[in-house]
Amino acid sequence: MILNPLEQFNIFSLFIFFENISIESYTALAFTNTNFFVLLNMVIFLFFFKLLNLKKSTTIIPNRFQYLLESIYNFILEMLVENLGTKAKDYFSWVFFVFIFLLIMNVSGMVPYSFTLTSHLIITFWLGLGLFIGINIVAISTHGVNFLSLFLPSGVSLALAPLLIGIELISYFIRVVSLSVRLFANMMSGHILLKVLLGFSWTMMISGTPLLYLLHFIPLLVVFLLIGLELAVAFIQAYVFTMLLCIYLNDAINLH
Description:
Layout: E1 13-21, E2 26-32, H1 33-54, H2 64-84, H3 92-108, H4 121-143, H5 161-173, H6 175-205, H7 210-215, H8 217-254
Antiparallel strand pairs: 1-2
Helix pairs in contact: 1-3, 2-3, 2-8, 3-8, 4-6, 4-8, 6-8
């Protein structure tokens, strides 16, 4: 049996709501595994905030859950303060939502037989594009037409203006790619590596050779070590995505 490392990223229909088949066209509205795991991650996300409401009472000596929540809260707040200064609290709920939701999607993908949403470029792209549009709305509502000065540094001669504006526009809109591709590539590559090593270990185990059967524990041990690394990557990628969001927010608010 050959294990395809890309098989885990397949999108397939669980059931079809509406189907219209004719000679001219084929139209169907399907509920896929992607839709299911989006809803599942949203349920986990809402359950997390339900726990926040249930744990409103705090103690001087925090319990484990309280310590976890306070650590995440302080982590996001410090990140925002470093980038936005006094305006950090205005955008805390937005950035906190993004970090927690990304972390849930990344970590839930490590559960066996689950589906990693952030390993698909189309999902990370639309997530990055939506946040990029939100950042532009913040910038325009804050500065109005002066927002366009972001693309033309002060003191630049008119002869160089067209060239610099073009470069600035490309570098500005490439931010959507920097948000989406980095997250997608890191999550997908890590899962492919795990699947390749597991397939290698499985092939050695069923080979029928006693020596290979004993040696299959070596790649299997590496897989267990990589799972811990991938859990760290899941957190790091959520952090990097959120950090970039804070940097882009700072540019939009302060026109850097």
